[in-house]
Amino acid sequence: MALTAETITDTALDILSRYGLGDLSMRRLARELEVQPSALYWHVKDKQSLLVLISKSLKVEVDALCPVTADPLAAALSLREVLLKYRDGAEIVLLGYSIAAADVTPRALSSERLGAEVSQGILTLTLGAVAVEQNRRLFDIAPAGAAENFAANAAAMLDAVRFQS
């Protein structure tokens, strides 16, 4: 198998789905890809770069669901949906966002589209809410009404911003 950004990302997402972020290491990824760690480091500088690469992949999924002109609430709901597909999805994108915000922000939620404050606000709300939801699931705490609560909170935040404009 050729070592590409796509194969690295797909394999990393598979490891994350099976074991979680705590067990994703560059050595484990290299082993799963059946390459020497040095070959992996040729493509990905370090684990932080890997997290940004994974986050960019999730951004592409959201962008495929929502065009740049999508309603911000619909885009936030799509981001939530994509994050929930992957174990520790919110934590991964939160780390990617911390390192390279512009590179991992879905187009419909970008600062160019919404303004810096609104973009940052809806992203931190989404990432935080999903991170809490995913962590509760790890402890078998049913996040009752999580989807509805998130939608209501995101809508309220976006409506408040629109009202102030």
Describe the protein's architecture and organization.
This protein is mainly alpha-helical and 165 residues long. It is 75% helix and 0% strand. The protein contains nine helices and no strands. The chain has helices spanning 5-19, 26-33, 37-43, 47-65, 72-84, 89-104, 111-114, 116-138, 146-164. Helix 1 (5-19) packs across helix 4, helix 5 runs parallel beside helix 8 and helix 8 packs antiparallel against helix 9. The radius of gyration is 17 Å and the shape is globular. The termini are far apart.
Strand content: under 5%
Order of helices and strands: HHHHHHHHH
Number of helices: 9
- How many E-type strands? 0
Oligomer: single chain
Share of helical residues = over 70%
| Shape assignment | globular
Keywords:
single chain, about 160 residues, 9 helices, globular
Layout: helices, strands, pairs:
Blueprint: H1 5-19, H2 26-33, H3 37-43, H4 47-65, H5 72-84, H6 89-104, H7 111-114, H8 116-138, H9 146-164
Brief synopsis:
This protein is mostly helical. It has helices spanning 5-19, 26-33, 37-43, 47-65, 72-84, 89-104, 111-114, 116-138, 146-164.
